[in-house]
Amino acid sequence: MCSGMVHPNLVIDALTKGADGVLICGCHPGDCHYQEGNLKAEARADAIKLMMQDFGIEEGRFRLEWVSASEGPRFAQVVTEMVSKVKALGPSSFRTF
Q: How far is CA 75 from the centre of its chain?
């Protein structure tokens, strides 16, 4: 329910099990229903990027973006951009299926 609840291990686990990319969308800073969950997500995103480097995973396979529930067109744009970036990177080197 909150981007701040997504633990870095969940993202790394998905990526090392073959997911081509992970997109986390959260509330805009200052608009978090859980007060500071999005700030926690932002700090965790930095940790995720460091872990991705350790595993040799391209940075473009992960994205954290602020999108509110009322921003349907923006959400669609973010997803389209993420899909395009991941397609350009090609399949994950961790993919086994």
A: 13
Separation of alpha carbons 21 and 63, rounded Å: 8
Q: Record the tokens describing residue 78, joined without a space.
A: 């973010």
pLDDT > 80? residue 1: no
Q: State residue 12's pLDDT score.
A: 97
CA distances from 40 to 16, 17, 30, 79 (A): 23, 25, 12, 22
pLDDT tens digits for range 54-86: 999 999 999 999 998 899 999 999 999 999 999
Kindly state the DSSP code that residue 96 receives in the 8-state scheme: -
The domain segmentation of the chain, as residue ranges, is 3-89
Residue 89: CA count within 13 A, CB half-sphere: 19
What does DSSP say about strands 62-66 and 22-26: parallel, antiparallel, or unpaired? parallel
The two three-digit tokens of residue 10, written as one number: 């969940």
Q: What is the value of pTM for the model shown? A: 0.91
3-state secondary structure of 85: helix
